[in-house]
Write a structure and sequence with these properties.
By secondary structure, the protein is α+β, with helices and mostly antiparallel strands. It has one domain (2-120, 167-189). Helices cover 28% and strands 18% of the residues. The protein is built from 5 helices and 6 strands, in the order αααββαββαββ. The protein has helices at 2-6, 10-21, 26-30, 65-81, 149-162, and strands at 38-39, 58-59, 98-104, 110-115, 171-182, 185-189. It has a 4-stranded antiparallel β-sheet. The longest helix is centred in the middle third of the chain and has 17 residues, at 65-81. The chain is globular, with a radius of gyration of 17 Å. 22% of the residues are buried.
Length: 190
């Protein structure tokens, strides 16, 4: 596993090299996507609670299947290795299911910022805070746009406590990488 993380397959290394050669231009990476659209699945019945886990209802994949497989491997590696750092992580809609691919400012290097527990499952004992439609039993959507009262009064302080990192802190957004463990496919790029 460690070798695959440090030395990705040639197709992934070539994609990373292309990103640097094109000075981090997201279009260079997006040109490697298949034109076919794939319906984003109703993950764990999320649609019933008005939960939209992705920006779009259709997604793309890389033309080269080896790159898609490597993206899936990265999610699985996080789950396998997280306990070594003292974290329990699982792949589901409440924990790890997506990351944000970006090209780094200055270098053009390709990276993915993975998000865990963006919509943690509501539990009256361990997480009794309602965060919106993507949480079990949710009743509202938390609007935390900069400039809004929630952002000014809650989010900025909360960010300092949990050390949230935003994709824009690293570079230019390329695409969101979603991992949904459904039969026949796993990676959905939106």
């Amino acid at each position: 596993m460690w070798r695959l993380i440090r030395e990705p397959p040639a197709s992934v290394a070539n994609l990373a090299r292309k990103s640097v050669e094109w000075a981090g231009e997201p279009d260079a990476i997006l040109a490697e996507l298949d034109l076919a659209l794939h319906k984003v699945p109703n993950v764990e019945n999320s649609n019933a609670s008005k939960c939209l886990l992705t920006k779009h209802d259709c997604a793309k994949r890389f033309v080269d299947q080896e790159i898609n497989s490597y993206m899936a491997f990265l999610f699985e590696a996080i789950v396998a290795l997280a306990p070594l750092a003292g974290f329990n992580v699982s792949v589901n809609r409440y924990d790890l299911f997506h990351g944000h691919m970006f090209t780094a400012y200055g270098t053009g290097r390709l990276g993915i910022l993975f998000h865990c527990r963006e919509y943690p499952e509501y539990d009256k004992n361990s997480f009794a805070l309602n965060l919106g439609y993507c949480q079990t039993g949710a009743l509202f959507i938390l609007d935390a746009n900069p400039g809004g009262v929630v952002f000014k009064e809650l989010v900025s302080e909360w960010v300092d406590v949990v050390r949230t990192i935003y994709k824009s802190d690293f570079g230019r957004t390329v695409i969101d990488v979603n991992y949904f463990n459904v039969e026949g496919c796993q990676i959905f790029l939106t």
